[in-house]
Write a structure and sequence with these properties.
By secondary structure, the chain is an alpha+beta fold. The protein is built from 15 helices and 14 strands.
Length: about 525
């Protein structure tokens, strides 16, 4: 070590100031580059721990990371926190156990630090805030929703039912850019809120987006929209079923991707209800019968005379001067007989009620395109490229295909169904799709898995290239006693020198001296001194 250190001092002392400065600069660059490569290769790869965080959640998570001394980065204007890749899953589980991120609003953690002496009014307010926060967090878990806010109106409970007022809720949704909610998702949010609040009906839940558009409420035709959506899905499902039924049969005969099938169904979604009541006059049954007989007999005077007032007034009465005719005072026997009979008949009847199906198929239309056959031609256009000849299907085959399609869709001429089958050549390229298709073998994942190996290889390559193309020439230049002669010897040989070497001729020192003095008189002095010293 002492000998090597002494040689280094001697070599350093023999260098000029320019050489010393160049050596320091090169050594500094090498050390700096090597240190940067080491720090770059040892720098961890950061991945997102949580995204779209609120300011409160981001602050709490950063405090936890600082307490555990875990490196982190904040991006996306403070809404995204990144940590080293190897700690992402572990930190997510740890944060979840601590209830982070909490989401917007305050949940039931408001009762974690309950104060003594809190009034009932404050407890009810905190309970309402907790419900709003928890429901808002639940709604935010939907992929299309970026943020939400919930307002509840919970009336006071009374002893009288007629004085009770129903609860209501309002939901404001902020959707992610380019996203929209389906009608089923909106109804799901409405039912979620109504099921979470006691006494809250679905018609008392109002949902609007951040632009003020009413999504659900009292005035929205949600039932009609839902019905229209269900009708469309039902029609599309029926059409798809018929298409698959026809296409699978044709592809089994023709081959894969040799048939295109489209089916259109005309459905009647009007719900019909029919009630019929028919009476059967020939079907008569005695339901009830009532018979009443009355007979009376005895002595008595029969009424005689002229009907009127005078015949009813006794003779000799005061104020009557009307002469009454003589009455028959003969007494005779009187017999009275009365008979009533009542029969009630029940006439048979038939009452039928028919409810038509939800959707009635009115008409079916099917369009089918089948491909022909391809045979290789004998001629060749180019070397290595074969020409294919197309052959259309025969009329008999097309008729068979038409009968098959009609059977598959339950064709009915009375209903007005239509089937159209055409034979058209497809756009085919005789190239294996697998050979041309992109290779999705996940090679990027494999390369990323061995990233640390590439880092060390890059460092080693940097060291080798630096030594070969920077350090080694610099050392030769620094250790050379005559930089001019060394530089001249490092230059490429001229055409004359190469010719003399091939001819085997030797140039003496005198000839070299003459040429050098003639070329450069000043720098040749140092060369002459070296020769004399040698």
């Amino acid at each position: 070590m002492d000998k090597a250190f002494g040689q280094f001092r001697a070599a350093l002392g023999a260098m000029t100031l320019t050489k010393k400065i160049s050596l320091l600069v090169v050594v500094g660059l090498l050390v700096g580059g090597f240190a940067y490569l080491i720090s770059w290769s040892g720098r961890p790869d950061y991945q997102s721990l949580f995204v779209n965080l609120s300011a409160e959640d981001a602050g709490l998570i950063v405090d936890r990371l600082k307490g555990q001394k875990i490196p982190y980065r904040i991006t996306a204007n403070g809404t995204c926190i990144q940590v080293p890749e190897e700690k992402v899953h572990e930190l997510r589980m740890v944060m979840a156990s601590e209830g982070l991120p909490q989401g917007a609003g305050i949940g039931f953690e408001v009762f974690d630090n309950a104060k003594l002496g809190m009034t009932e009014f404050m407890q009810n307010v905190n309970y309402q805030r907790a419900l709003q926060g928890e429901l808002s967090r639940t709604i935010n878990q939907i992929d299309e929703i970026e943020n939400s806010r919930l307002h509840l109106v919970m009336p006071e409970q009374t002893l009288f039912v007629e004085e009770e007022r129903p609860a209501s809720a309002s939901v404001v949704l902020k959707l992610k850019p380019g996203r929209r909610l389906s009608q089923n998702q909106i109804q799901g949010i409405v039912h979620l809120v109504s099921s979470s609040i006691s006494g809250l009906e679905t018609e008392n839940v109002t949902v609007v987006d951040n632009r003020g558009k009413l999504l659900a409420g009292r005035d929205d035709p949600s039932s009609a929209n839902a019905l229209s959506s269900d009708q469309f899905m039902y029609q599309r499902r029926m059409e798809t079923t018929l298409e698959n039924r026809v296409k699978t049969m044709l592809e089994e005969v023709l081959g894969p991707s040799k048939a295109i099938v489209r089916v259109s169904c005309d459905l009647d979604f009007v719900r019909h209800e029919e009630t019929q009541e028919k009476y059967l006059p020939e079907n008569q049954v005695v339901r009830s019968e009532q018979v009443f007989n009355e007979t009376s007999s005895g002595q008595g005077s029969l009424p005689m005379g002229v009907p009127g007032v005078s015949s009813n007034i006794e003779p000799g009465s005061i104020g009557t001067d009307i002469e009454r005719p003589a009455t028959n005072t003969n007494r005779s026997a009187a017999v009275f007989q009365k008979q009533d009979q009542t029969k009630n008949y029940e006439i048979g009847k038939v009452v039928s009620r028919k409810v038509m199906p939800y959707a009635t198929l009115k008409r079916v239309s099917a369009a089918v395109i089948v491909d022909g056959t391809y045979t290789p031609a004998t001629k060749k256009k180019k070397k290595g490229a074969s020409e294919w000849q197309y052959a259309a299907r025969s009329a008999e085959e097309m008729q068979q295909f038409e009968r098959i399609v009609k059977r598959a869709i339950n064709f009915s001429a009375d209903r007005g169904d239509a089937v159209e089958i055409q034979n058209i050549p497809f756009e085919t390229a005789k190239v294996d799709a697998k050979a041309e298709g992109p290779q999705t073998g996940g090679w990027m994942t494999s390369v990323k898995r061995f990233k640390f190996i590439f880092d060390f290889l890059l460092i080693g390559l940097f060291i080798i290239m630096s030594f070969l193309f920077l350090v080694r020439p610099l050392i030769k230049w620094l250790t050379a006693e005559n930089p001019s002669g060394e530089i001249i010897r490092q230059l490429p040989k001229t055409v004359g020198e190469l010719e003399r070497e091939y001819q085997g001729g030797q140039i003496s020192y005198m000839d070299q001296a003459r040429q050098m003095i003639a070329a450069d008189g000043q720098n040749s002095v140092g060369v002459m001194k070296d020769w004399i010293r040698q």
